[in-house]
Amino acid sequence: MAERRASPRRNFQASFILFALVCLIIGLLVLVPIGYMTFESVTDEMGNPTLENFIKYFGRGSIRESLLNTLLVSIGIGGLGTLLGVTLAFGVSRTNMRFKTLVKSTIIIAIMTPPFLITLAYIILAGPNVGFVNRALRFLLRLDTTYGPINIYSVWSLVILGLPQGIATIFMMVFPAMENMDPYLEEAARMSGGNARRASLDITIPLVKPAILSGLILSFGQSLALYGVPRMLNINVLTTKIRESITIMDFKMGAVLSTTVTALSLLAVFLYRRTIRSSKKYSTISAKGFRPSVMKLGRARHLFSALGLVYALFGFLIPYCTLVMASFMRSVGNGFEASNWTVDNYVTLLDSSVAATAFKNSLFLGAMTATCVVLLGLIAGYIIVRAKVRGRGVLEYLCNMPSGISGTALAMGLIFMYLSQPLNQMRLYGTIWLLLIAYVTRMLPSGVRYCQSALIQINTELEEASRVSGASWGRTMLKVTIPLARTGMLYAWILTFVMAFPELSSSVMLRNAGTDVVATAILDLWDGAGGLPQAAAFGTVVFMLVTGLVILAQKVTGRSMIDRA
Amino acid sequence: MSEHKLEIKNLVKRYGSVTAVDHINLTIHRGKLFSFLGPSGCGKTTTLRMIAGLETPTEGEILVNGEVLSDSRHVVLPEKRNMGMVFQSYAVWPHMTVFDNVAYGLKIKKMSKADIAAKVRDTLGLVGLAEYASRYPTQLSGGQQQRVALARALANEPAILLLDEPLCNLDAKLRENMRFEIRTLQQRLGITAVYVTHSQDEALAVSDEIVIMRDGRILQQGAPEDIYAHPDSSFVAGFIGLINRMDAEVVAQEGDCYRLRLPNGQMLTAAKGKGQFKQGERCNVLIRPENIVFDAWNRDLHYNRLEARIEQVSFTGSIVNYFIRLEGMQESYRIQATPPLRYATGEQAVCYFTPEACILTRD
Ligand SMILES: Nc1ncnc2c1ncn2[C@@H]1O[C@H](COP(=O)(O)OP(=O)(O)OP(=O)(O)O)[C@@H](O)[C@H]1O
Ligand SMILES: [Mg+2]
C-alpha cells in the first residue's frame, strides 16, 4: 500500500516544481521590471522615497502635453474603433453586406502588421511636400505652394493611423461573441413581434456588451502603447517622451513617464479582466442546429458594404499598394515617371550589411521568442486550464499584464533592472539577450492565450485515461497532451513569430550597435540613411513575410484567426 | 369555423442539393394541436420555421385564413404573423429578467405598464412561475427556462403556437408533467398549435392529429389512436410504439381474412385491413407486443396460436417483456404483459393473438 502511494506523490512534486519554476520565470519577466521602474520613479538620487519626481516632471508643459495627447489619442482610437469595429462585426456576422472576406483579411492584416508600416505609406501619400495626394490636390486646386494642403503630422492623423488596428482589436473581440451567440435568441424576438432593428438593439448588442467593453479597453491600452506611429508623425506622446529621456540621459524622467503609462495600462488590464469575468454571466444553454441565414438588409446593406470597403481601402489596400509602389521608385518626389521605376532599392537592401544584420537578428529573436513563449505558454496555460491549484487566477493575471504595457515602458524597466546592482553583473544591457527578454515578456499574453485555447480543446478525459493507465504526469504531458496540442502549438509559434519579428517599441530602446532589428532599421532608413523608397522596400519585405506566414499558419493548421474552425 | 385555418400547400424547401421538405400538404383547423413526428433530419424544424416566416419556401405556399403568408417570392415578416414560438433551445434572453422576457412582446405592442404587469403576472401564473418574475434565466433550471419560453410565447396571445421539441432537454418526470400542462393550456386558450417532437409518447399524449414525416415527406397523418391501430407501413408502425414484424406470404382469402404462411411454414389468419393483397403476394405482418397473450380467454375469437420458447424476460415495473423465439424463425419477438411473471427464461409457452391484431403492410 505504501509503495502504491509513493508514486503519485513523486509525480505531484515533479509537476509542482515545474509549475513553481514557470510561475517564478513569469513573475520575474513581468513584475520585476515594473518594480524597478516604479521604485526609480518614487525615490530621489539617494534612494529616499519622494513624490518630487512626479511633481517636477508634470510641472513641465511639454510633459503635460504628452500625457494629454496620449489620453486624447487613446480615447479617440478606442471610441471611434468601438463604433466602427462593432458596426463591422455586426455587418460581417449578421447581414448580407458585401466584401466580407475583404474586411476579414483587412482585420487580420491590421492585427498582425505593425502600424508603422501603414504610417510609412501615408507619409508617402500625404506628406506635406512630396506626398502624392498633396501634389495632386495642389495641381487640381491650382494652389501655388509646395506645402500642404493636407498636413499629416498632426494628432488627428495619429488617431486615424491607429484606427485600423483599433477597429481590428474590437472586431476580434466582438465578432466571435456575435457568431457564438445562440441565433435563436434573435429569432425569438422576431416571434415576439419585434422587427429586425429592434431584435438587434434589444438582444444582440446587449448580449455582446461585455465583448464590446473588453475590446474598447484593450484597444485603449494598445493605443497608450503606440510608439512607431507617433514617432514617425513627430507627435509628442508619453512613449516618445520616454524614448527621448534616454537620449538626453534623464532617467528619472523615463522612470516617471514609464510608471505613468504603465499605471494607465494596468488599469485597463484590470478593467478588461473584470468585464471578461462578468461576461460569463450571460452564458446559457446554447443551441444545436444550423445558423439561420443572415439578415437581408434593404438599402442599409449598401451602408455596411461601403463602410467595409472604406475600411479595407484605408486600412489595407491603399497603404500597402502605396508601399509596394514606392519601393520600386528612385525617388518618391519624382512620382510616376517612367525613368523613376527601379529595383535598385531591393538590390541595395540585399547588399547592405545593416539590413542583413537586422534581418538576421529579427529572425533569431522571432524564433527564440516564439519558442520560449510557446513553452512557457504551454505550462502556464496548462496550470490555468487544468491544474486545480490555488493562485492560478493570479498566474493568469500575470500572463495578461504585459498585453497593456507599452514596449517602451517595459524596456525602461529592463534598463533599470539590468543596469543596477546586482543584475548588471550579467552584462545583458546592449546584447540581443535583453531584447529577447523584452520580446518574450511582450508576446507572453497572446502566446498563453493561444496555448490555453489549444488545451481547452483537448478533452480532459484523454489525459485522465493516460493517468489511470499508470502514466505519470510528465509522461502524460509528453505522450498525450503535447501531441494532441501540436497543431495548436504550431499555430501559436508562427503567430508569435510573426508578431515578434517586426517589434519596434522596446527594440528602439534596447538596441545597440549590432543589435538592430528590422523595425529599427526601417526607421533609420526612413530617418535619412536611405530615404523613403528604401524604407518602403524593406517594409514591403516585412509585409510579405508577415502575410505569407499568417496564411501559412492558417493553411497548415487549418485554423482561422477569425472564423470558427 | 374556418377562421385561423392554417394551410400548407405543396411546400418545398431545398438547401443546395438537399431537399429538407418535399411537397408537404396539410390543413390545420383552429384550436387543434398537430404533432410533427419523425426521425432526426426529416424536416420537422424546417417546416416549422417556414410556418413562422423564419425561412423562405423554395416552392409552395403557407396560408392563414386564406391569406398567403409565405411563398417563394414573398414572406410576411415573422413579427407580423401573430404567431408564438417555443424554440428547441428555449432561447430565453439571458440579459433580461423573467418578467422582461415575458413582457417583451407586450412592450412592443405598446401596452400600458399596468396592463403589461397584469398580463405577465397572469401568464407566469399559468406556467407556475409567478414567484420567479425578478430572476434571471441563468438562475433557473432547464425546466423553468422552458416554461419561461412558453410563457413568453403565450403572453402575446398568438393565434398559432409553434413548439419545436420544447421538452427535449427535460428529465422524464418533468417532461411528463409539462406535456399535459401544454395540452391543457392549448385547449383552454383555444390556440392552434404545431408541435414538433422526436418522441412518440409525447405525440400520442398531446395531439389531436399526428403527422409522421420521413425524408421531408409526410408518410401518414391521422388521429393518434388511428395511426397507432392502422399504420400504413412498418416504418410508421415502428415509429409509433413497439412492433413485431414477420415476413409472410398470402395463401388464400377467407371472407374478411387472409390466410398467411410464415417462412417456417406456420399458418396465420389476419384480418383484411386497408390494403388489398393478391394470392401469392408477400407482405409484412405487424403485431403490437401487448396484443399477444398467453391465454385465449374468449372462445368466440379465432386466435392464432404460436408455440414459442421464452428466450428472455425483463421486468420493468408495470410491464413484463417476454422475448420469444419461434421454431424455424430468425428473429425474436416481444410480448408485453402485466405482472406477475408467468414464465421464466428457457420455458416453453403457447401464445395467442387475434386476426384483428394483425396489421398487414407492403413495406
Ligand atoms: N440551414 C440549412 N442548410 C443546409 N441544410 C439544412 C439547413 N437546415 C436544415 N438542413 C437540412 O435539412 C434537413 C432537415 O433538417 P431539419 O432541421 O428540419 O430536421 P429535423 O426534422 O428538425 O431534425 P431534428 O429532429 O434532428 O431536429 C436535414 O437534412 C438538414 O441537414
Ligand atoms: Mg429539429
Account of the 3D structure:
The complex is a heterodimer of chains A (565) and B (363). Chain A has a domain at 1-35 and 342-565: MetI-like fold (Orthogonal Bundle). Chain A starts with a helix and ends in an 8-residue tail after the last helix. By secondary structure, chain A is mainly alpha-helical. Chain A contains 25 helices and no strands. The longest helix of chain A is centred in the N-terminal third of the chain and has 40 residues, at 2-41. Chain A has helices at 2-41, 52-58, 61-94, 100-112, 115-126, 132-140, 155-180, 183-191, 196-207, 209-225, 228-233, 238-247, 251-279, 300-327, 344-351, 353-385, 392-400, 407-419, 432-456, 460-468, 473-484, 486-500, 507-510, 518-529, 531-557. Helices cover 74% and strands 0% of the residues of chain A. In chain A, α5 runs antiparallel to α25 (531-557). By secondary structure, chain B is an alpha+beta fold. Chain B is 23% helix and 34% strand. Chain B is built from 8 helices and 19 strands. Chain B has helices at 44-52, 98-108, 113-126, 142-155, 172-189, 200-206, 224-229, 234-239; strands at 6-15, 18-28, 33-37, 59-64, 67-70, 83-86, 160-164, 192-197, 209-214, 217-222, 244-254, 257-261, 267-271, 282-287, 304-315, 320-326, 332-337, 348-353, 358-361. In chain B, the strands form 4 sheets. In chain B, strands 6-7-8-3-9-10 form a 6-stranded mixed β-sheet, with helices on both faces. The model of chain B has no long low-confidence stretch (mean pLDDT 88). The interface between A and B is medium-sized, with 29 and 34 residues. The site of magnesium ion (MG) has 2 residues of chain B, from α1.
